[in-house]
Amino acid sequence: MIVRPRPNWFRMLFVWRGSVLPVILPQLLATTAFAILVTLLHGRVFAWKIPLNFVPFSLIGLTLAIFLGFRNSTSYARYWEARTLWGLLLNETRALLRQALTLVDPPSDASTLAARLIAFVHALRHQLRMTDPSADLERLLPAQDCARLQTALYKPAMLLLMAGEWLRDRRQAGQLSPALVQAMEIPLGRLTEALGGCERIAGTPIPFTYSVIIHRTIYLYCVLLPFGLVDAIGPTTPVIVAFIAYTFFALEALGAEIEEPFGTEPNDLALDAMSAMIESTLREMMGEAQPPQSGLAPGEFIQT
Are the C-beta atoms of residues 209 and 37 closer than 8 Å to each other? Predict the structure, then answer.
C-alpha cells in the first residue's frame, strides 16, 4: 500500500504509481480506438446505421454507477476491516508484552514471549499471502520451536498456542498468579479473534457472479456508447467515450484491487511495513536493537 502525503492538485493529475491507470490502459486505449472508428464511420456497421441515441445510456449509466458504488463500498469495508484487525494486532501484542514485563516476576523470560508474538505477526502475513514463512521463523525462534511449527498447517494459531503455553509455564513456576493469567488471557484472546477475522476476509471473497455481471455490463456499455453519441456530439465522441470508460474501468479495477486487502498490489495493505513496525516496537519494549522498517519507499510512511 502507498501511504504518503497528498500531492497538490496539479501533481494529482499525473500520478502514475498507485493509480489503476497501468491496469486499465490496454482496454481504455482499445475502447477509445473503437470510438474513433465509429466516429469516422458515422455510426455505421457496413451499410447498417446503428439506431441509438444517448437516452438509454443515461438510464443504464445511472444504474451502473449505483452498482459500482455499492461494489466499491463493499470492497472498502473489507479493506478497512482488515486494516482495523492489523491495528488490533499492534495494540494487543504491545499490551501482552507490557503485562509480561511488568506483572511477571522476574520478567527475564519475556524475550521468549516477545519472539513468539513477533513470529506470529510474520507468520500471519505469510499465511494471508500464501508465502513461505520459514526464513522469518528461523530468524526469530529457536530450533525446537521451528521444528514444532514445521508440520503445522496453521502456523499463526500454533504460535498463539505457544504464547499461551508461556503463560501456563509462568503460572506453574509461581511467577504469575492465576488472577494475572486471566488478565493476560484477554489480549491473547483478542489476537485469536484478529487471526480469525483475517482468515475470514481472505477466505470469503465477494461472490464471483456479482463481479462478472458488473464487468460484462461495463464493457458492453462502453462498446455501444459511441453509437449513441456520434450523431449528437460528432467528432468529440472519442473524447467523451474515453473519459466515461476511464471512470467505469477505474472504479471496477479499484474495487477488485482492494477487495483482497492482503495482496501485494499498490493499493493493498502494507503488511510488510506493518509487520516490521510491530517487530520494531516490541523489540524496543524489550530494550533490543531495532531492525529497519521495510516495505516503504523513500518519502512514504506507515500509519497505525
Answer: no
